[in-house]
Design goal:
CATH superfamily: Aromatic compound dioxygenase
Keywords: Dioxygenase, Oxidoreductase
Shape: globular
Distance between the termini: 22 Å
CATH class: Mainly Beta
Organism: Fertoeibacter niger
CATH topology: Protocatechuate 3,4-Dioxygenase, subunit A
Oligomer: single chain
Number of strands: 11
EC number: 1.13.11.3
Helix content: under 10%
CATH architecture: Sandwich
Number of domains: 1
GO molecular function, one term: protocatechuate 3,4-dioxygenase activity
Strand order of the largest sheet: 3-2-7-8-9
Family: Belongs to the intradiol ring-cleavage dioxygenase family.
Structural class: mainly beta
């Protein structure tokens, strides 16, 4: 694992023009979450810019293998590889950053006490993993394809199959969160959360294409999801949509 990490410095302020609207009534919980007063932007402090930081040595050998990392017994579901690179706005690799993922199991249920969906829990699947990007910015996870699931938004809304991503910079104050969707899923266009993104190009940045070159015959398909931190090709993030 690399010992290097992104250079420290002031956190880059948000470009509010890049955000989806905070108030989108078709996404029901945005009605109560949307700010009611003018936003105030504060500069970053030295503590936020430099730490607290994660230790590269704390990752275990199965941390990026969601099929085995909970009990050591294989999880149920379609095996897939999710891989890509973390890049800056000049397509240069960003090494040494912590990438975390979490997801529902193959039936569309999370291992969470508040998830009341009728799909069964998989006793061998926790649904979370982490990896540190290599010198060329690459990361890789072995997991199962998550299932779609209903959610109490409108009468019959379903979340598309998706995986949540978190990317850390030099410290926990530099964290970006987004979701990855799967090429060809018809629920993407129907999802109220996806539809808060105002452009088709923006949605496309969140959809991972099938990558048969990285698939393993008779074992698993692969999907490629590059994460671009800034610039016109940047990945859209839920908490800092202008990029790191």
């Amino acid at each position: 694992m690399p010992d290097t990490a992104p250079a420290t410095g002031p956190l880059i302020g948000r470009d509010r023009n890049w955000h989806p609207p905070a108030y989108t009534p078709h996404y029901k919980t945005s009605v109560t979450r949307a700010p009611q007063r003018a936003l105030v932007a504060l500069g970053s402090t030295l503590t936020e810019e430099t730490g607290p930081a994660f230790g590269h040595s704390i990752l275990g050998p199965l941390d990026n293998n969601l099929i085995l990392n909970f009990t050591g017994q294989p999880a149920i579901g379609e095996r897939i590889i999710v891989h890509g690179r973390v890049l800056d706005d000049s397509a240069r690799p960003v090494p040494g950053v912590l990438v975390e993922i979490w997801q529902a199991n193959a039936g569309g249920r999370y291992r969470h006490k508040k998830d009341g969906y009728l799909a069964p829990l998989d006793p061998n699947f926790a649904g979370c993993g982490r990896a540190i990007t290599a010198p060329d910015g690459r990361y890789e996870f072995l997991t199962v394809r998550p299932g779609a699931y209903p959610w109490p938004n409108r009468t019959n809304d379903w979340r598309p199959m998706h995986i949540h991503f978190s990317v850390f910079g030099t410290g926990f104050g530099q964290r970006l969160i987004t979701q990855m969707y799967f090429e060809g899923d018809p629920l993407i266009a129907r999802c109220p959360i996806v539809n808060t993104v105002p452009s088709a190009d923006g949605v496309g940045q969140l959809v991972a294409p099938l990558d048969m070159n990285a698939a393993i015959p008779m074992d698993c398909l692969a999907y490629k999801f590059d994460i671009v931190l800034r610039g016109r090709r940047q990945t859209r993030f839920e908490n800092r949509l202008e990029g790191m």
